[in-house]
């Protein structure tokens, strides 16, 4: 029987787009340890650079002002089959939202068959088009997703904001970004499951617009959450390719 000493208090925050940043390792560790992305950052500079094995895609994490538009930047170079694209996420974007993008990007099965509609999952979750606005807004009106511009020069734009506060976080996708990757993000936005956070790090913004439940859970569930995520992604790689990835090495510490 698990005792109190074997548990730790955690906060479960909904809606998930208000949960706050989280641990960047949720994104960077699987890219490096499962998908083989190499790192080339200077350890004396608080910045992370990861490059895909084919050298075509790069993730850059450059902490600065929390309101800078491009704390997280993911870029892919042009290929014979697809133009270049770029994606940026602001600092307060929950890592689980960004991880939905990187998990889809590194899926060894490739893009899903059929068409991908970024709006579909949102509509299924009750997101609607508000008055005087294109795109879709969450039922609480806090997060909006829209496609701006014209085909060929368009942008996909996600913004989380409340009236009394400035923008909490924003994500921007060039129109050339593969739709299934944007769709992975909107699926994550529409997911009603709360996000777990340390109760000492509950975001201070929009507190009256979020639901927070705290409870004690086994301490191992927290301590090994990232390792379980890495193992699951490694198994996905093995199922798709029949080749087991190199055994994951120990985490190289926090990325920031």
TrEMBL record:
- Which InterPro entries does this one have? DUF317_SPDY (IPR005523)
Q: Where is the DUF317 domain?
A: 51-110, 138-194
* Organism domain of life: Bacteria
Q: Would you tell me the protein name for this molecule?
A: DUF317 domain-containing protein
Name its species: Streptomyces davaonensis (strain DSM 101723 / JCM 4913 / KCC S-0913 / 768)
């Amino acid at each position: 029987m698990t005792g109190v000493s074997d548990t730790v208090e955690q906060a479960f925050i909904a809606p998930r787009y208000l949960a706050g940043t989280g641990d960047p390792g949720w994104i960077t560790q699987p890219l490096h340890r499962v998908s083989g992305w190499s790192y080339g950052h200077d350890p004396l500079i608080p910045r992370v650079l990861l490059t895909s094995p084919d050298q075509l895609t790069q993730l850059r994490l450059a902490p600065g002002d929390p309101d800078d538009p491009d704390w997280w930047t993911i870029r892919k170079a042009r290929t014979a089959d697809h133009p270049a694209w770029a994606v940026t996420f602001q600092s307060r974007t929950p890592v689980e939202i960004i991880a939905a993008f990187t998990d889809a990007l590194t899926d060894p099965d490739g893009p899903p068959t059929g068409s991908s509609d970024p709006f579909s999952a949102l509509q299924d979750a009750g997101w609607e088009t508000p008055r005087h606005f294109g795109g879709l807004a969450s039922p609480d009106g806090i997060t909006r997703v829209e496609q701006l511009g014209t085909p060929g020069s368009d942008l996909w734009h996600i913004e989380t904001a409340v009236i009394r506060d400035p923008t909490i976080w924003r994500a921007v996708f060039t129109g050339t970004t593969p739709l299934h990757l944007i769709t992975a993000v909107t699926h994550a936005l529409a997911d009603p499951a709360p996000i777990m956070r340390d109760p000492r790090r509950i975001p201070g913004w929009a507190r009256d617009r979020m639901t927070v439940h705290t409870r004690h859970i086994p301490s191992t569930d927290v301590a090994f959450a990232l390792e379980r995520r890495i193992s699951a992604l490694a198994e996905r790689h093995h199922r798709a390719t029949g080749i087991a990835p190199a055994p994951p090495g120990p985490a190289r510490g926090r990325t920031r």
